[in-house]
Amino acid sequence: MTKEALRKLFLEKRSSLSQETYDKLNESLIDNFFKSIDFSTLSVLHSFLPIEKTKEPDTRKLIKRIKKQLPSVKIAIPKINTQTSNLDHFYFEGENQLEKNTWGIPEPKQGVPVPLEKIDAVIVPLLAFDKSGHRVGYGRGFYDKFLNQCTGRIQRIGISLFPPVDEIENVNLNDQRLTCAVTPDEVFVFD
């Protein structure tokens, strides 16, 4: 399927989830994330914050658990820079630091900037991913640009409430592949 078709399909799949099913999938996803990611190599983990209306995986619960169980791991969060069409990055200081932008995405209104070279791993937002590690985002390219600016050693971790599709048809050279993807039931590692 094409990115456009997958975007539509997976937005519909997410919106059709009951709150109970959504909560259970998130709980299993977070448990699986903690079982499968090697936190010993991480000093700074970058994570998107979820758009609640589209039922993205609840990274707020994931961040809360990391801060409680792994206080030495610092969390970085993005802010869309509308002037440059890039992401700026800040250390996460707490909920009082956040406000929603025009797309309903929680972002830091202030904070300490995070240099790209400090980031060890990125939790990448996605609508769908395939068995080769390609992903479908929302189509604006913010994360592909950001990941392209990062060093080669950075882990690119996709999280999804659903398993992968076989193949995304219209992948291009600027698309950044995932290192791995975590779902509620499985972990997929890509070359």
TrEMBL record:
Record-linked NCBIfam families: MTHFS_bact
Cofactors demanded by this protein: Mg(2+)
Keyword ATP-binding: yes
Coiled coil regions, renumbered to chain: none
Molecular function, one GO term: 5-formyltetrahydrofolate cyclo-ligase activity
Name by which UniProt lists this protein: 5-formyltetrahydrofolate cyclo-ligase
Record key words, sorted: ATP-binding, Ligase, Magnesium, Metal-binding, Nucleotide-binding
Catalyzed reactions: (6S)-5-formyl-5,6,7,8-tetrahydrofolate + ATP = (6R)-5,10-methenyltetrahydrofolate + ADP + phosphate
One Pfam short name: 5-FTHF_cyc-lig
PANTHER family: 5-FORMYLTETRAHYDROFOLATE CYCLO-LIGASE, ATPASE INHIBITOR/5-FORMYLTETRAHYDROFOLATE CYCLO-LIGASE
Enzyme Commission code(s) on record: 6.3.3.2
Entry's family note: Belongs to the 5-formyltetrahydrofolate cyclo-ligase family.
